[in-house]
């Protein structure tokens, strides 16, 4: 190995180690490539030189990491079913504008096929986005500082399937370590298109087989995509809503509960908290068949994070919808509260009978 080759290797290693400040995935790929390279060196002296260099660069990386802002705080994190997850942290502060600008420029120039959806951030990573932020929950880093990110194996919260669907979670698992994911993403309505966030890099949208910042190295024959969908059996309700309906969250879930329904412009709702949601179609909504989703958000006692369960259903707005009411006077068009008459019992729509008749003659009001 000549001087030029050594210089080239050092440039590569320094670049990768510095990027470890912003991406755990980059650290993983760096160590993998470094180990592979060292094992191929023929001269023992060169191995020793590189080993000393790696130790020095490791100290440099620790210094860089310490300069990145606030220290992460470990939280009590639970899956949607309530099972605790280790190695979950929160950051109270964000990256500096300079750091964000650097990461976003690197993404645009190195991965031009990726569409940036959200700014770079140190508050959540790939697992945190896929299993928390994407569901409208907390910004956290899951599996921080470890590869033991087996939360997706919570069979009470998620079901594994063998094909691409939307919506779903995706974990990239090495075939020799099948139960430990290196990266997570979510599917989109466009087949084979994913959304994910690597380390502190920006949130991006990309084709599944494309490279991404900090995670592109796993797109090869040694890794496999595993697909997971969140269970919805904890929510009772119709699969096809054609009239007024109720959706109820299972009694096993405790804590503060709220819910929301999408698309919001389609439904009239009663209440906004609690485990029961009563829905009806808004007046004036045109006849249609739409995809809809109701989501219950809750915070379990003893857990620091908000979890959620959702249920997808079909909203079939009928072509003719009648809202029956009894007029208080001929001028009453159904608006509430009634400000037209104080004597609702004098309504011409109410027929009071004192004796049986043919049923078509109005008798005098009593």
Report on this model:
The chain has 366 residues and is of the alpha+beta class. 21% of the residues lie in helices and 26% in strands. The protein is built from five helices and 20 strands. A seven-stranded antiparallel β-sheet has the order 5-11-10-9-8-12-7. A four-stranded antiparallel β-sheet has the order 13-15-18-17, with no helix packed on it. A hairpin with a 5-residue loop joins strand 2 and strand 3. Helix 1 packs antiparallel against helix 2. The chain is elongated, with a radius of gyration of 29 Å. The N terminus is likely disordered.
How many β strands by DSSP?
20
Q: Please, what is the average pLDDT? A: 76
Main beta sheet: 7 strands, antiparallel
> How big is the Rg?
29 Å
Shape: elongated
Low-confidence stretches: 1-44, 57-69
Helix content: 10-25%
Number of helices: 5
Return the structural class: alpha+beta
Query: Strand sequence of the main sheet, in spatial order?
Result: 5-11-10-9-8-12-7
* Distance separating the two termini: 111 Å
Q: Can you write the helix and strand succession as a string?
A: HHHEEEEHEHEEEEEEEEEEEEEEE
Q: Beta-strand level of the residues, as a percent range? A: 25-35%
């Amino acid at each position: 190995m000549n001087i030029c080759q050594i210089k080239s290797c050092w440039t590569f290693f320094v670049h990768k180690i510095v990027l470890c400040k912003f991406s755990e995935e980059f650290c993983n790929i760096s160590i993998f490539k470094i180990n592979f390279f060292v094992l191929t060196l023929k001269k023992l002296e060169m191995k020793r030189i590189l080993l000393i260099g790696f130790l020095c660069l490791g100290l440099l990386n620790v210094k860089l990491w310490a300069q990145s802002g606030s220290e992460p705080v470990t939280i009590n994190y639970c899956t949607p079913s309530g099972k605790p997850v280790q190695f979950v942290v929160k950051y109270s502060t964000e990256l500096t504008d300079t750091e964000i600008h650097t990461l976003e420029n690197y993404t645009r120039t190195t991965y031009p096929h990726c569409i940036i959806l959200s700014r770079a951030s140190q508050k959540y990573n790939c697992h945190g986005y896929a299993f928390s932020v994407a569901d409208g929950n907390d910004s956290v880093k899951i599996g921080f500082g470890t590869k033991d990110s087996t939360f997706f194996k919570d069979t009470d919260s998620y079901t594994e399937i063998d094909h691409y669907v939307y919506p779903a979670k995706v974990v990239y698992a090495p075939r020799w370590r099948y139960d430990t994911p290196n990266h997570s993403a979510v599917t989109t309505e466009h087949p084979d298109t994913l959304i994910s966030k690597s380390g502190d890099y920006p949130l991006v949208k990309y084709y599944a087989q494309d490279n991404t910042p900090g995670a592109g190295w796993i797109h090869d024959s040694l890794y496999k995509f595993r697909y997971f969908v969140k269970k919805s059996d904890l929510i009772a309700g119709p699969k096809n809503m054609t009239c007024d309906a109720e959706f109820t969250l299972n009694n096993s879930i405790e804590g503060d509960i709220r819910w929301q329904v999408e698309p919001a412009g389609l439904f009239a709702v009663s209440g906004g908290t609690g485990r029961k949601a009563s829905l009806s179609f808004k007046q004036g909504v045109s006849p249609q068949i739409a995809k809809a989703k109701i989501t219950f958000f809750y915070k379990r006692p003893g857990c620091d994070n908000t979890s959620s369960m959702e249920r997808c259903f079909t909203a079939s707005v009928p072509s003719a919808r009648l809202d029956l009411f009894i007029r208080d006077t001929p001028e009453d068009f159904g608006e509430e509260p009634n400000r037209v008459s104080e004597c609702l019992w004098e309504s011409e729509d109410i027929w009071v009978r004192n004796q049986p008749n043919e049923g078509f003659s109005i008798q005098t009001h009593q």
